[in-house]
Amino acid sequence: MNPLLDDFNTAPFSKISNNDFKPAIKKGIEIAKSEIDAIINNLEKPSFENTTVTLDFIGEKLNRITSVFFNLNSAETNDEIQKIAQEISPWLSEFRNDITLNEVLFKRVKTVFELRKTLDLTPEQKTLLDKQYKSFARNGANLNEVDKSRLREIDAKLSKLSLKFGENLLAETNAFEMHLTSENELAGLPESVKEAAKEVAKSKNKQGWVFTLDHPSYIPFLTYADNRALRKKMAIAAGKKAFQKNVFNNEKNVLEIVNLRHQRANLLGYKTHAHFVLEERMAETPEKVIKFSNNLLEKAKPAARKEYKKLEDYAKKLDGIDQLQKWDGAYYSEKLKKELFDLDQELLKPYFKLENVIEGVFEIARKLFDIKFEEVANIDKYHEDIKTYNVTDTNGNFVSVFYADFHPRKGKRNGAWMTSYKSQQIKNGINDRPHVSIVCNFTKPTATKPSLLTFNEVTTLFHEFGHALHGMLANTNYNSLSGTSVSWDFVELPSQILENWCFEKEALELFAKHYETGEIIPMKYVEKIKESASFHEGMQTLRQLSFGLLDMQWHGSESPQTISSVKEFENNAFAETKLYPDVAENAMSTAFSHIFQGGYSAGYYSYKWAEVLDADAFEYFLEKGIFNKEVATKFRENILSKGGTEKPMTLYKRFRGAAPKPEALLRRAGLL
To answer: Domain span at residue 197?
Structure first.
């Protein structure tokens, strides 16, 4: 029996073999198709219950199977899984099109949609109906047969191309290593970084130290290594991922993806892919996004230029460097930060033992939202590193299953993300609770030291945990509106607001304890963390805006077919935000997985957009107290539990009492 076709609760990882995926997904598609046939062949008049609601519950089995598969493809992949992904992606794309391009089904959906004013629907039901109708219309249901067939073709190609993009990027990340054998070459690197590099070398049966493009290896090297030539080697290697003349080059994939997305948008009656995407976002139009970005750019640019000049002067004074390069930024920033604030990341790390930070974020969640986490051993996992928890409320009611996967390994992509194995929904009167996971890449414990986090990694953990809370505390009727199923420029609010607690004395005292002595982090460090929070904020803002504007240029172009050079296009897009000299052999787009592999196309601006929301929302907590129950309850009831049941601005105003103000972000960033 195929374990994926059993009615499992938590994912049966240990029972699954790679051979199970294809037959299970085939069968899942068959089951879902028979569920669709049941709606189509229903002789009763289309109603909200027999069409809209029934359609929302379709494909549960398939969703459970694919969530297991695609999560493994990100966190524990291998050549075989990647090959399966290439095979099944077109199947799934075709199946999605079989739904949205099914005329009889659409007719039923449209009938209910046109009756909406005569139906007595709750706001959540109205949202479901509206979302469902649009999911058909926005996927070609109103097209003629020729155009429908063209749309299917485009979607199948796009799903393969974005997979290929990600595989190339992972291959390029894994292909590079810098093997050092002389202690002199390690000058400036903290002991913990050297020790981790030694462990990597050992795992590859090599003497000395090995550095890779995985973040826990790459970022400390760029930040601390005194050897400028080696920093340059690492930075250029990272910058030319999938931009080299080899089989993993992504330039053609980028241009093809952009062109196909544009053709798809045109086919559906939109001017550009950005117009198509933003119709369903808080921002609504590309013009609004560009206005929002340029408004912030205007405030950030003078500050960024000033900061860059100071950094350049500092590098010149310290080491006689005439021209600051990209591989110098993190190194001299860290030195200058240390000098200005007497704050060294390495001094802070002993206070951020991974286990303590986890306990800290759990305790903060308990104080704010009355939930408890208990680590359990009876939940199946896909790797021994995974931690599994049962989450309950303070009355002992079950809230969620929570998985946490913290360390890098071969077959796991870089970065950090939250994902879900099972969405929350209410079905047949039963509140079906979610299974949520966060995946990060933090340094593994070594023979002599536990996993100690940099302060940036602490905020990353809080960020992903904020997303997890959005999933875990979901309380909606329909799974397609549950948890993080919200507008893309709203989804970062729960994650980004939680990062604020990392800067507050009252919160840090709960978990920032020295791993050897148990001493609570000295308050002078906390003050310095807060003081330094807006250090180089102008440059950071410029960097984020540059990525968002690059994304908008790619996806807001009305004639992408005329773009022939990825590099040239990118240089033009970066013209207004550029600080460092260009590196000829590097490109950003060929490794920009957020927009070419993930779901951020025409949506990267949403990080900054959500920062405005989170700064404004956190000011409310600061006014009343960071653990104030009244504000926390309002946040839980209006934001975390509501998912996508109403328009984000409606939910936000209900929580805050007013629309968000950009000044809150500028104040926090010290840019006002």
So the answer is: 176-239
| Count of structural domains, the chain | 2
CA distances from 254 to 150, 428, 561, 563 (A): 20, 45, 12, 11
Q: What is the chain's percent helix, strand, coil content, to nearest 5? A: 60, 5, 30
70 pLDDT band (50/70/90 cuts)? very high
88 and 214, same domain (yes or no):
no
What is the CA angle 668-671-672, rounded to 5?
Answer: 90
Neighbours of 496 (CB within 10 A): 23
> Is 609 a member of any domain?
no
Please tell me the predicted confidence (pLDDT) of residue 347. 87
Instruction: Choose, from 312, 464, 499, 537, the residue flagged as catalytic.
Output: 464
Using an 8 Å Cβ cutoff, are 478 and 123 in contact?
Answer: no
In a domain, 227, yes or no: yes
Residue where one domain finishes, among candidates 142, 166, 187: 142
Q: How many CA atoms lie within 13 A of 639 on its CB side?
A: 27
Indicate the SS3 state at residue 625: coil
For residues 233 and 580, the answer to whether their CB atoms sit within 8 Å is no
pLDDT tens track for 240-267: 999 999 999 999 999 999 999 999 999 9
Mean pLDDT of the chain: 95
pLDDT level of residue 598 (50, 70, 90 thresholds):
confident
Alpha helices in 488-592 (DSSP H): 492-499, 505-511, 523-532, 537-556, 566-573
In a domain, 372, yes or no: no
Active site residue 363: no
Burial of 175 (0-12, 13-18, 19+ CB in 10 A): middle
- Look at the alpha carbons of 313, 319, 320, 326 in this order and tell me if their dihedral is positive or negative: negative
How far is residue 492's CA from residue 607's CA, in Å, rounded to a whole number?
7
Taking the CA atoms of the chain, what radius of gyration do you get in angstroms?
25
3-state SS of 333-390 is HHHHHHHHHCCCHHHHHHHCEHHHHHHHHHHHHHHHHCEEEEECCCCCCCCCCCEEEE
CB neighbours of residue 171 within 10 Å: 15
Helix axes 455-472, 492-499, angle to 10 degrees: 140
Model confidence pLDDT, tens digit, residues 139-190:
898 899 999 999 989 999 999 999 999 999 999 999 999 999 999 999 999 9
Between CA 466 and CA 458 the distance in angstroms is 12
If you average pLDDT over each of 99-103, 396-400, 610-614, which comes out highest? 396-400
